[in-house]
Each structure stands twice: as C-alpha cells, then as structure tokens.
Specification:
alpha/beta; 16 helices; single chain; 44% helix; globular; TIM Barrel
C-alpha cells in the first residue's frame, strides 16, 4: 500500500439518487479507470452496501476490466446478517462469487461494537477469518470498529491475530466525546495495529464547512479543496496506512488523487487552521452541551446524556437522514445505558447543568432521531 488513498464503494455514482441500486456504470468505469491510471489500487466494498449490490457492481467495473494484480480488494463479513456459524461460510462464498475473485486482499468483520462483538464471539468469527487466511482466501484479516476505546482495547488484547483495524477518524470527531477518534487511534497504536481510516470527511459534511471556516482555509491555500484538508488530516496520523474516500464524480477522483499522489502531511500551521475550523464548526451545534457530565450523576435511568447530545449534534452537522454511523454509536451506547426515551422527566439533570440546558426537552429530540427502528439498507432481489 504505497499510496494512502482508497476508493470507498459505499457512495457510488447513481442514475437515480433515490435508488441506491441504480448504478451509473459508465461513470463508475471512468472513476475506477482514472483511479488506477493515477497509481492508486485499494478498493473497499461490503456485502450490505448499495442494497447488497456493491460487490457485484465492483465486479463489473473493476474485477472484469482490470488485471487482478493491479488492485487490492477489501470487503466485510456482515455481522448483522450472519446468524449461525454455517452462515459465515455461506456468505463468504457468496462474496467471492459476487466479486468474481478467488481471494480478498483485505477482509473485515463489519461494524464491530459491543453488540456485534458478542455475536462474533458466539460464532467464533475471529477463528473463521484466521482459517480463511490459512486457506489463502484472505491476505489480511481485520475489523471495522464503531465503539469505545475501552472495548477496542479489550478486543485487540483478546485477538492479537487481527492484522489491522478500520476506524472512523476525522478532525471533527478527533475529540468528540461519543466517538472518541483520538483515543481509539491511540489504542490501535498501542497494539501496533496498522490503521485504515473510514469517514475522513464524515459522510461529506466536512466537504462543506461554514463560510467563516471556508475563508480561513482558502486564505491559507486557495488551490486546496475543502475535502483535502479532512483527508490529509487523517492521512497525517502516524500508523495510518490507508484513508478511504467515497468518490462518485470524476472531479472528486481527480482532486483526491492530485494531492495524495505525493502525499505531504499537515504542517504545524495547517494543524492550527484545522483546530480553528473545528471550533467554528462546533459553535454551530444544535445542543450547546460542554460535556461536563454533571447531568449524569443521579440520573435514575443511567442515560448517557452528554454522549447522546454529541451524537445528535454530529447528526445535525452532517445533515444525515436515516441510518448513519451515529446511529451505530447510539445503539452500542444504549446497550449499556438508558435510552433517550427512558427519561422520566424528573429534571435532576437540569438542576445540575451549569449551562441551564433544557435537557429533558433535548432528550425528546434525541429520541425522535435515534429511538426508532433503524432503516438498514434493504436487500435488493437479484
């Protein structure tokens, strides 16, 4: 992996934005070709992306049109879909067929958190991955992770056989108290695990920053695109081997490959600008919580109030509709804490809040966003 930019296959070009399976194959072919022509090789897909058809469309756009040695392909075991030990073998074989390959360069347990980790242990999914590696059907075995640094430390301690870990890292989540990108990064470094970064632009929200932030960035480097700051921030962290970017236009591919071809880490002045931009973005928050956590003490329902507020703010900033990575973090948090909807309106939290926030009212907004049946991607019948 000489170049640190990977092609994420979760946001591929579509003919109809309301139909996640209406692939614009002509455009996708151009994106894939350009990406490879410019010396980049890493493609990251998954069983569930694009109505369960991302693997198949990448077979058409990538595998059938380029020599197998010219690219590295990553996909993931869908922990939500597998129910039995036998399911893992069935799905894996289906994935090989979907992608039209005989092996995967990188294979991950998908979306590991407190709930899915328990299932992975029950199904012995870690041994499954290692066995596939021994069979030569996987070159590198890892996991994508969405949970606390404490759980990450527990998993990497229990499973040193993992070759790498995929983490959500971007400059706005770096110090986010619910996502804790920096602390998760530090845990991965402690265990000497190579890191692959997902969501460097936070679902595209860091490609469009507030005007005040945009001006600061453009004054420093008029030629640098706004997304380039986010991708370079992630790629600048020591131990990061790959940064994934979901590209669906030729302009995005040309831009990303231009500055990542001869990657230059952020300098001290650029880090200062990133910190300024983060402060500006955080000023535009739906709930002005300072994460002092006074509200948590004495909550009869043990609701993770500041963490839920941080996730809610993150969702509003990203203008995310429906299922999102924030939803995943919420589900994992709620597995060990009260849900936002568990609030009994006792207002003990409001009496403790130094910001005098109307916490119980805000929790209703959080509940309306997260305490609903998650709209997982629908499986499209083939």
């Amino acid at each position: 992996m000489d170049k640190k930019l990977g092609f994420g296959c979760m946001r591929l070009p579509l003919l109809d934005k309301d139909d996640q399976t209406s692939f614009d194959l002509e455009t996708l072919n151009k994106l894939v070709d350009t990406f490879i022509e410019r010396g980049f090789t890493y493609f990251d897909t998954a069983y569930v992306y694009h109505g369960y058809l991302s693997e198949e469309i990448m077979r058409e756009a990538l595998v059938k049109r380029h020599h197998r040695d010219s690219f590295a392909l990553a996909t993931k075991l869908p922990m939500r879909d597998v129910k039995t030990v036998a399911d893992q073998e069935t799905v894996f074989n289906e994935q090989l067929e979907n992608c039209g390959v005989e092996y995967f360069d990188y294979y991950l347990l998908h979306n590991i958190g407190v709930i899915s980790y328990k299932k992975a242990c029950e199904l012995d999914s870690f041994s499954f991955g290692i066995n596939k590696k021994k069979e030569g059907k996987i070159k590198s075995f890892g996991m994508s992770f969405h949970d606390t640094p404490e759980l990450l430390d527990e998993i990497l301690t229990a499973h040193p056989e993992l070759d790498f870990v995929q983490l959500q890292i971007n400059y706005i989540d770096w110090e986010n108290p619910s996502i804790q990108s920096r602390r998760c990064y530090e845990i991965a470094r402690k265990h000497n695990k190579p890191i692959i970064v997902m969501e460097p632009c936070k679902g595209g929200s860091l490609a469009l920053v507030p005007e005040k932030a945009d001006i600061i960035m453009k004054e420093y480097d008029p030629k640098a695109s706004i997304p380039s700051w986010a991708i370079r921030f992630a790629a600048s962290q020591e131990g990061v081997n790959m940064v994934l970017s979901g590209m669906n236009t030729l302009e995005q591919v040309l831009d990303n490959t231009s500055y990542m071809a001869d990657f230059q880490p952020l300098n001290l002045e650029e880090y200062k600008i990133i910190n300024q931009v983060s402060e500006i973005i955080n000023e535009n928050t739906a709930i002005p919580c300072t994460i002092c956590r006074y509200c948590e003490k004495g909550c009869p329902k043990k609701i993770a109030i500041p963490d839920y507020f941080a996730l809610y703010n993150s969702t509003k900033r990203a203008m995310t509709d429906g299922f999102s990575s924030q939803f995943v973090y919420y589900l994992n948090l709620a597995a060990n804490h009260g849900k936002a909807s568990d609030c009994i309106d006792c207002k003990q939290c409001e009496q403790a809040c130094p910001q005098h926030l109307k916490i119980t009212e805000h929790l209703k907004d959080v509940s309306a966003t997260f305490d609903v049946t998650p709209q997982f991607p629908a499986r499209k019948e083939r």
